[in-house]
Design a protein that fits this description.
With 301 residues, the chain is an alpha/beta fold. The protein has a single domain, classed as Alpha-Beta Barrel (TIM Barrel), CATH 3.20.20. The protein has 14 helices and nine strands. Strands 4-5-6-7-8-9 form a six-stranded parallel sheet. A three-stranded parallel sheet has the order 1-2-3. The longest helix has 15 residues. The protein is globular, with a radius of gyration of 18 Å. The chain starts with a strand and ends with a helix.
Length: 301
């Protein structure tokens, strides 16, 4: 089974014009693809995702939602409504979709909303600290406790983001205290810290067995320097083992950089690709990264 642990119904560039414009000025690849925000028709977008999944051979896609409202202003829909789109879609089509609940923990009633989402079938929590909070802030603790109690992972964005979002709290370092204080809760370090903080993310995971690495946004590194991409995988293998890596795409925001099917093919071909650089990656390790570990984290059969 192939599970994309990190994708969205709509990218942040599609949801927020301000971020789209600033990221384009900063040279972020692929932003031009989102020159205008699309009509956010759930049925139409779900159909597009299914077609993309079928072409790539992806079995399940986890729908993650970044809550940027307290930083960027509320969107056309409330955060409750946006989350309900994902949980409803996952309930209607569980063969393709899994819902994660996304919330800014500073919102009133965040814990109750998360509990309601879990009761509705959500299988994880998504936090986006670039909205202006630290994942180590005590306001997050009740969410972590509930995630551990219900046996679902907490996926947290790491790495820099375009203004007006802020990167201060997006260092993996802010997950050190939560991982220590909530050892029964599993945390997924989305983007594995990106280039800025990858060594830190890996070193922390060496000491905290409930930290996992997710590799979306590494598509550009693969394109630029295949050898460096493989060397980072070798570092992970030697440090914590590739069984603590989960596959994610971050589509559709990164689709213009590398389409989903190419990213999946890269993972399937890792034994050959890595071998060109003197690194051994087995087919069993590939299967774990592509879906086995994610299935375990979410309690899927």
């Amino acid at each position: 089974m192939i599970i994309d642990l990190h994708r969205h119904l709509w990218s942040i560039f599609e949801r927020y014009a301000a971020v789209r414009e600033i990221a384009a000025r900063g040279g972020v690849a692929g932003v031009h693809r989102h020159a205008e925000a699309p009509v956010q028709d759930v049925g139409a977008r779900a159909g597009e995702i299914r077609a993309e999944m079928e072409k790539a051979g992806v079995d399940r896609s986890c729908l993650l939602l970044g809550d940027y409202g307290l930083r960027l202003g509320e969107g056309d829909r409330s955060i409750e409504e946006e989350n309900r789109l994902a949980t409803d879609l996952a309930r209607e089509d569980p063969e393709h979709f899994i819902a994660f609940f996304g919330i800014d923990p500073r919102r009133p009633g965040a814990v109750d909303l998360f509990r309601d989402a879990l009761d509705a079938g959500a299988r994880g929590l998504k936090l986006h600290p670039c909205s202006g909070f630290s994942p180590a802030d005590p306001v997050c603790h009740p969410l972590y406790a509930l995630a551990g109690e219900r046996g679902v992972p907490v996926a947290v964005h790491t790495g820099p983001m375009a203004a007006p979002l802020i990167s201060t709290y997006a260092s993996p370092l802010h997950l050190d205290e939560p991982a220590a204080d909530f050892p029964d809760t599993n945390f997924v370090i989305l983007h594995a810290g990106q280039r800025a903080w990858f060594p830190l993310a890996l070193d922390m995971a060496r000491w905290k067995p409930n930290l996992y690495l997710e590799l979306s946004l590494w598509q550009s590194l693969l394109i630029e320097d295949e050898g460096r991409f493989v060397s980072h995988l070798a570092e992970i293998k030697n440090g914590i083992g590739l069984g603590r890596v989960v596959f994610g795409s971050d589509c559709p925001g990164v689709s213009a950089v590398m389409p989903l099917h190419t990213w999946v093919e890269t993972f399937r071909d890792l034994p050959e690709i890595a071998g060109r650089h003197g690194v051994e990656i087995t087919t069993d390790e590939v299967e774990q990264m592509l879906g086995g570990t994610a299935a375990t984290l979410m309690g899927l059969s």
